């Protein structure tokens, strides 16, 4: 049922928020017995480190001259971890792992949350570090395309989150004010930067971690993605 809510748009981070980046652990453990979870964690950490290195080394408003797509950085991070841990990584194994990354498993409540928001008449979007094709592939693989209005990639600004230009892409795509936008992420650093940009923010804190020790706390916090729907349980006049 369509109502009147304080937010016109809900923007989701993709990796770690809608899609489980650690769902690769089982396949990694098959390839590298006893090390799957460790490899998955190091791969994710190095991937994010590379995005920050690229952006901070040249935070030019027109884009970093060091920019590489998130796909390329994800591949480079995998190769680094294999070398660091002295693990074999054949071309076939690399292709298989990258293909699995392209079609990561969504969290169990991702579809229900997106579908519920669409039923309420609220616009939905994904803002992702992923290169243009990556959000499309993972959304399609999980059957979420009918519930997402726009897929927004930082490829358009050639700067990764947490650069303000990345969050600014949302306002270029949608005619909506920051105060009418709710940004949802499981990454505390992403939530903090989005709040600094001017969005209201929801932190999906599945692991029960403490929030960052700098900046203001999130407007909302929940232990699952489903908790986002509690914000919309009652219609609010604007």
What do these coordinates show?
By secondary structure, the protein is an alpha/beta fold. It has two domains: 9-20 and 105-232, 3-Layer(aba) Sandwich (Rossmann fold), CATH 3.40.50; 21-102, Putative phosphatase, domain 2 (DNA polymerase, domain 1). The protein is 39% helix and 11% strand. It contains eight helices and six strands, in the order βαααααβαβαβαββ. The protein has helices at 25-31, 36-56, 70-84, 91-102, 110-119, 133-141, 164-173, 188-197; strands spanning 9-12, 123-128, 150-153, 181-185, 200-204, 220-222. The protein has a six-stranded parallel beta sheet, sandwiched between helices. β2 (123-128), α6 (133-141) and β3 (150-153) form a beta-alpha-beta unit. α1 crosses α2. The model has no long low-confidence stretch (mean pLDDT 95).
Percent of sequence in beta strands? 5-15%
**Number of structural domains:** 2
**Cα distance spanning the termini:** 17 Å
The helix/strand order is EHHHHHEHEHEHEE
- The poorly predicted ranges are none
> What form results from the Cα inertia axes?
globular
At the fold tier of CATH, the topology name of the largest domain is: Rossmann fold
Give the CATH level 1 class of the largest domain: Alpha Beta
Annotated CATH homologous superfamily of the largest domain: HAD superfamily/HAD-like
How many helical elements?
A: 8
Q: What is the makeup of the main sheet? A: 6 strands, parallel
What brief labels describe this structure?
single chain; 238 residues; alpha/beta; Rossmann fold; DNA polymerase, domain 1; 6-stranded parallel beta sheet; 8 helices; 6 strands; 39% helix; 11% strand
């Amino acid at each position: 049922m369509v109502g009147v809510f304080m937010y016109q748009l809900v923007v989701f981070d993709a990796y770690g928020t809608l899609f489980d980046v650690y769902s690769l652990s089982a396949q990694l453990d098959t390839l590298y017995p006893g090390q799957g979870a460790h490899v998955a964690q190091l791969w994710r950490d190095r991937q994010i480190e590379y995005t920050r290195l690229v952006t901070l080394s040249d935070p030019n408003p027109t884009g970093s001259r060091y920019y590489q797509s998130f796909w390329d950085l994800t591949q480079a991070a995998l190769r680094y971890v294999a070398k660091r841990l002295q693990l074999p990584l054949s071309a076939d194994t690399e292709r298989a792992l990258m293909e699995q990354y392209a079609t990561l498993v969504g969290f169990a409540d991702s579809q229900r949350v997106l579908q519920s928001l669409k039923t309420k008449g609220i616009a939905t979007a994904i803002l992702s570090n992923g290169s243009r094709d990556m959000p499309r592939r993972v959304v399609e693989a999980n059957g979420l395309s009918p519930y997402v209005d726009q897929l927004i990639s930082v490829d358009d600004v050639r700067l990764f989150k947490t650069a303000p230009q990345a969050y600014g892409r949302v306002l270029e795509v949608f005619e909506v004010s920051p105060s009418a936008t709710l940004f949802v992420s499981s990454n505390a650093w992403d939530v903090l930067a989005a709040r600094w940009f001017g969005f209201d923010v929801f932190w999906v804190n599945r692991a029960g971690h403490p929030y960052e020790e700098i900046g203001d706390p999130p407007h909302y916090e929940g232990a699952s993605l489903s908790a986002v729907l509690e914000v919309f349980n009652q219609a609010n006049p604007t």
